[in-house]
Design a protein that fits this description.
It is found in: Cell membrane; Membrane. Keywords: Cell membrane, Membrane, Transmembrane, Transmembrane helix, Transport. Its main location: membrane. It holds the Pfam family OpuAC. Belongs to the binding-protein-dependent transport system permease family. In the N-terminal section; belongs to the binding-protein-dependent transport system permease family. The chain has about 850 residues and is of the alpha/beta class. About 55% of the residues lie in helices and about 10% in strands. The chain has 39 helices and 20 strands. The strands form 8 sheets. A 3-stranded antiparallel β-sheet has the order 3-10-4, with helices on both faces. A 3-stranded antiparallel β-sheet has the order 8-5-9, with helices on one face. A 3-stranded antiparallel β-sheet has the order 13-20-14, sandwiched between helices. The protein starts with 5 loop residues before the first helix and ends in a 5-residue tail after the last helix.
Length: about 850
């Protein structure tokens, strides 16, 4: 029998409806969204416990004191597990969907009860609506209404309407026909018969239908969460996709509490609206009063209304006068409250980058909204314009199918991480499996299964369509579809039991650090070349949000930054992603200004406007650090002046107060004589670099010279010279007075006075000609990286103990510049930082020191906040 293309027909019909009735869907979307926003605003306005009190009063009115107490405790529990906002979102969704359903279901049920032809027609339609898997409704729902609340509400209405229609029809048909005939006999109009006879008597059955409508609507919250609606559905969906037991249990408990409350209240509402039930209730209350059974007493409607209104007024007042508790502080109000909708896939790098940008945008005055989606829904929503951007587009391979389909409706804002790779991995204890070719013959070892991730992921499609056929794995292996979290959970279980397992993975991923895994080589290149992670936006986003688009285009994270950010978020736990981001930003000061730069965003110090006088020597580390501090101080609002000195002049000028501070005191050995002479007028601020040494160095091509003792007898090799630096430095005086005599070199060698640049120039000339040369050097120094030179050992310790590089100031410096003094007390640089800073200054060239420092600072974001923190 030929295959009927039912799916294609349905698809064509959906496309036709979308293209020709878009105005109708836009109208429906506006109405539903407006209803939801209004109800959600009302439910979210009061303080949680006060609103819980309102709901408890309603429970007291409908059910009694004990149900009221239990209701209050249940809602207090929801608040305590920090799911109050999500619960109110869900309640708003259920109420809106329930009202819409009842508005359509009751009239349809009445019509069906009065017309058997109508009943016969709608019965199979209702069967179809109730038995079709509700997830299927999401596909056309996204096309018609986009992402968010509306498709969730529409799917909920369709799914929950059948019991409302059926129970209404059943209730009216069950009314005694003799009563209806009696009303007709007295000449009652059919409409009055319906309103005065049939509906009142059918009301208990109709209310049972309303109860079922509400309960079915609540059961659909997960559906709403999958398409981007707020609420407990989103919480449960995230828990399912990440296999988070704690998060799922808490979300489930909140759903259960809401379900029990709505079930009990809607079933009890019949007692307040049905005449027969009201009489039964009155008899029950009379018995309760006569027996002093307070727990069964219920307040009158007027008393309950007074209580509800009073609590509502108090709650509303507290909401009006309460402040915003948002922890994010606006550091530069660029956004002016503009909203940005960010979607993300529940993958580690997607969660990390999304919540990072949520925090950054909030600090820049925007109102970002983030929502988790399935991969397909995310790309579809962006193409439809419902989502502004996402930061987890793996291109050109993994998400190639989505990009190819929607690229005309999207913008690629550039890559922020790469390269990546897709792979299949197995534990290292599985022997004999190193490539994907090896996997084909090991089907029984892995029980014929490769554990995959989300079925809509690009890697899964690539694996199914290309990789498995290329290696013949589609014959003996099944690709298990699930979620990233489920795959990782299975990996963890199998690894703990030392069982063979093959999983789909990608690089970078923290699993390679946690477990010993073998990344199977893709010898045929079926996975394609490595991806890069891109930021994708809807078409037109750059024009509407040029500032955000520019930030996104410049956005970059290194592997170390990304993995440390993911780690902070994992440590913070589910639901506290932004707290993890804030913890990471504290450990990476200046990252906000780097990723979202705003002119003039640098904070000013408490002593902004102060003008400290800084002296420096023409030594590499001193030039580099002096210009670095000049830049930092200027960013903090200071007006520093810098001036070069000889060593002796520096100490003399600093002791007299002509120089406030310098950063290159080599103590306790190198400049000991100056410190001993002037220390009464100076203050030792502290070391910023330790483990230094004073050296004599020779090129490595000079053989047989490994220590200072080896220099003896080789004066002719070096033409009797040791190339020195500034004659006033402590190292030069120590070399002439102690080191050379200690090794018997004072008669054989002469130390040439000069300068550090002259010494380095001579070293470069001799090195280029392969000539022997001995030079005065020190550690740290970039020359050891640039040239292959030997640091001569000092077995007699003639140069003395190792020095520290310390900051010194005039004795008035701490009181004159307390903030700057505090910064210097905590300042420290590593060998790598100092060497790279010196190199950047050297490459910039003489006269361009500030450019070299700026280039280095650009490569070290956050250095200003690290060196000179200002409390916000």
């Amino acid at each position: 029998m030929p295959r009927l293309q039912v799916g294609d027909w349905i698809n064509s019909g959906v496309n036709w409806l979308r293209d020709n009735l878009s105005w109708l869907f836009d109208f429906i979307s506006s109405v539903v969204q407006g209803m939801y926003d209004a109800v959600n605003t009302v439910l979210g306005a009061p303080e949680p416990l006060l609103f819980a009190g309102i709901l408890a009063v309603l429970a007291w009115w409908l059910r009694g004191l004990m149900p009221a107490v239990l209701a209050f405790l249940g809602f207090a529990l929801i608040d305590s597990i920090e799911l109050w906002g999500e619960a109110m979102n869900t309640l708003a969704l259920v109420l809106v969907a329930g009202v819409i359903t009842i508005v359509f279901a009751v009239p349809l049920g009445i019509w069906a009860s009065r017309n058997r032809a109508v009943s016969a027609v709608i019965r199979p339609v209702l069967d179809f609506m109730q038995t079709m898997p509700a997830f299927v409704y999401l596909i056309p729902g996204i096309f018609f209404f986009g992402l968010g609340v509306v498709p969730g509400v529409v799917a909920t209405v369709i799914f929950s309407m059948p019991p409302g229609v059926r129970m209404t029809e059943l209730g009216i048909r069950q009314v005694d026909t003799e009563l209806v005939e009696a009303a007709d006999a007295f000449g009652t109009h059919p409409r009055r018969t319906l309103l005065r006879v049939q509906l009142p008597l059918a009301l208990p059955t109709i209310m049972a239908g309303v109860n079922q409508v509400i309960m079915l609507a609540l059961s659909m919250v997960v559906i709403a969460g999958m398409v981007g609606a707020e609420g407990l559905g989103s919480t449960v969906f995230q828990a399912i996709s990440s296999v988070d037991v704690a998060m799922g249990f808490e979300g489930g408990i909140a759903v259960v509490i809401l379900a029990m409350y709505l079930d009990r209240m809607t079933s009890a509402l019949n007692q307040r609206v049905s005449p027969l039930a009201r009489r039964a209730l009155a008899r029950e209350q009379a018995k309760a009063l006569s027996g002093f059974k307070v727990l069964r007493w219920r307040p009158a409607t007027s008393v309950a209304m007074v209580g509800v209104v009073a609590l509502a007024l108090v709650a509303g007042g507290m909401h009006v006068f309460s402040g915003d508790e948002d922890d994010s502080k606006v550091s530069a109000d660029v956004g002016k409250g503009q909203s940005v909708n960010i979607g993300y896939i529940n993958w580690d790098e997607g969660v990390a980058s999304t919540f990072l940008w949520k925090e950054l945008l909030e600090q820049r005055g925007f109102k970002p909204k983030v929502q988790s989606y399935d991969v397909g829904a995310l790309w579809t929503g962006m193409a439809a314009g419902n989502i502004d951007l996402q930061t987890d587009g793996w291109l050109p391979a993994t998400h190639a199918a989505y990009w190819s389909k929607y690229k005309d409706k999207l913008e690629n804002l550039g890559s922020w991480y790469g390269p990546t790779s897709l792979e299949v991995a197995v534990p290292s204890y599985v022997k004999g499996v190193k490539t994907l070719d090896d996997l084909e013959k090991k089907s029984s070892t892995f029980k014929g299964k490769i554990i995959g991730i989300e079925p809509g992921a690009g890697e899964m499609k690539l694996m199914q369509d290309k990789v498995m056929p290329a290696y013949g794995l589609n014959k003996n292996f099944t690709l298990v579809k699930g979620s990233t979290a489920a795959m990782l959970s299975q990996l963890d279980r199998s690894y703990a039991k030392q069982e063979p397992i093959a999983v789909t993975l990608w690089s970078p991923h923290w699993a390679y650090n946690k477990y010993h895994l073998t990344k199977l080589k893709d010898t045929k290149g079926a996975f394609g070349k490595g991806d890069h992670v891109d930021t994708i936006a809807r078409k037109g986003f750059s024009q509407k949000n040029p500032q955000v688009a520019q930030w996104m285009k410049n956005f970059k994270l290194s592997e170390k930054q990304l993995t440390s950010l993911e780690s902070e978020i994992q440590d913070a736990g589910k639901g506290k992603e932004q707290q993890g981001v804030r913890a990471w930003l504290k450990k990476n000061p200046g990252m906000v200004n780097k990723l979202a730069p705003v002119p003039g965003a640098d904070q000013k110090g408490k002593d902004a406007g102060a003008a400290p006088k800084i002296g420096y020597f023409p030594w590499d580390e001193d030039v580099a650090t002096t210009y670095l501090w000049k830049n930092v101080l200027e960013r903090r609002g200071y007006k520093p002046s810098i001036k070069q000195y000889d060593v002796g002049s520096m100490f003399t000028g600093m002791s007299s107060g002509q120089v406030d501070v310098e950063f290159d005191a080599w103590l306790p050995v190198g400049q000991k004589q100056y410190w001993d002479k002037y220390k009464e007028n100076l203050v030792d601020i502290g070391p910023w670099y330790d483990k230094t040494s004073l050296d004599i160095a020779v090129p490595s091509y000079v053989k047989g010279v490994k220590s200072l003792a080896d220099l003896k007898g080789k004066g002719s090799t070096f033409k009797g010279r040791i190339i020195g630096i500034e004659p006033g430095t402590g190292q030069m005086k120590m070399l002439k007075n102690k080191v050379l005599p200690a090794y018997g070199l004072d008669k054989e060698y002469k130390v040439s006075d000069g300068s550090s640049p002259a010494m380095l120039a001579q070293l470069e000339r001799s090195y280029a000609k392969h000539e022997p040369v001995a030079v005065v050097l020190w550690t740290p120094h970039w020359a050891y990286s640039k040239y292959q030179i030997t640091r001569l050992a000092d077995p007699k310790k003639a140069f003395g103990a190792n020095n520290e590089i310390r900051s010194l100031g005039h004795k008035s410096f701490p009181k004159k510049y307390p903030e700057f003094y505090g910064w210097l007390k905590k300042w420290h640089m590593t060998n790598q930082e100092l060497a790279s800073l010196e190199q950047a200054v050297q490459e910039a060239g003489k006269g361009n020191e500030e450019k070299g420092v700026q280039k280095w600072m650009d490569a070290h974001p956050g250095i200003v906040d690290k060196m000179a923190p200002v409390a916000s």
